[in-house]
Amino acid sequence: MTDDPRSLSVEWVLRERVKELTCLCAISQSVTRPGLSRDEILQGVLEHVPRAWQYPEVASARVILDGRTYTSPAFQEGRQRQTAEIVVGGVPRGTIEVHYAQEMPEIGEGPFLKEERSLLDAVAKQVALILDRHEAEQERLRFRDQLWHADRLATLGQLAAGVAHELNEPLGNILGFAQLAQKTPNLPHAAKEDMRKIEAAALQGREIIKKLLVFARQTPPQIKRVNLNQVIEEGLYFFRARCAKQGIELVLELEPGLPELIADPAQLNQALVNLVVNALQAMPEGGRLTLRTETHGAHLSLSVEDTGVGISEEVMGKIFAPFFTTKDVGEGTGLGLPVVHGIVSAHGGSIRVESKEGEGTRFEVHLPLVRPDTGQGGG
């Protein structure tokens, strides 16, 4: 190793230090603007790093983070490189690298100065701090949205319960009088058909009210030991013929010996039916419907997966909003998935959705073996 002649020049040393300080300041200023994504943050860092090295004209930089690669403009991988590890929250997540596109004289750490080693370590630490703050902010925003959604559901639940109770009586009268009118002697055929339509509409309205009450959790639960596989087998009884008629292959992958849940079987059945109906409506041209159960530690999972039309990103954020539907009039009330969400939440569980347009959708429900409100668990 030989000394770099330029190190004898005070002016050159000062210029290099200024470049390093400018780099750190530029990084700090460029990535602290609000609303930046992780990709934008890393690209902002990489734009400034090469300028601080002693050969900026042939230097380029790269970050490898969580398996993804980000590079500075006109990146060229070189044999001579300097690397520092990025550690976020005590967990190694990747590296930041500086490459020289041409072979440069070796003066310290290869062609790199010891001050550049310190600078790269400092940049790596700064990147880690920036990412840590960014991820904490994203988590805070997700938590805020969850609280907002929960508050909105609670308010709509109270509204739905009031509306349902108010509608029950007039609907009951409509249904009763329509049934009585059908018994009128010598009732014209056309009038009788009209009465049947009124009766059918009233019954449909009653079903909607039942869903509203479930969504508002106004129906008393019947808690007991439940075999989730049995709930699925029974719930699919009326769908097998429909699947065959629509050209849908029904696949069951139910884990044998599944532990029992402490739950309301009627509500679980309704959640299952709503998910299955949603999947069937997404496959008008046929496809494959897969239901799977698995044990995950203290939880059971139920996944309902279809190969249908999928859900767009725009719609994804609204699917659990009450009364939101993309279906035609008469095909959906916009209560199916909110009811599922309400039932799963009432059982202390969670629901996750993955979808890709044109390829299908998977709903995954996680239910605890021990109910948080009772401390009871399955056998």
The total count of strands amounts to 11
Strands ordered across the widest β-sheet: 6-8-9-11-10
Give the domain tally.
3
Order of helical and strand elements? HHEEEEHHEHHEEHEEHHEE
The rounded distance between the terminal residues' Cα atoms is 71 Å
CATH class of the largest domain: Alpha Beta
Shape assignment: elongated
Structural class: alpha+beta
Report helical residue fraction: 40-55%
CATH level-4 homologous superfamily of the largest domain: Histidine kinase-like ATPase, C-terminal domain
Largest sheet: 5 strands, mixed
What amount of the residues lies in strands? 15-25%
Number of helices: 9
CATH architecture of the largest domain: 2-Layer Sandwich
Query: Which residues form runs of ≥5 with pLDDT under 50?
Result: none
Mean pLDDT: 81
Radius of gyration: 31 Å
Description:
- The structure is a single chain.
- The chain is α+β, with helices and mostly antiparallel strands and 379 residues long.
- Helix content is 46%, strand content 20%.
- The chain contains nine helices and eleven strands.
- The chain has helices spanning 10-31, 38-48, 114-181, 189-215, 228-235, 240-246, 265-281, 313-316, 336-346; strands at residues 59-65, 68-71, 80-88, 91-100, 224-226, 248-254, 261-263, 287-296, 299-306, 350-356, 360-368.
- The strands form three sheets. The chain has a five-stranded mixed beta sheet, covered by helices on one side.
- The chain is elongated, with a radius of gyration of 31 Å.
- The relative contact order is 0.07.
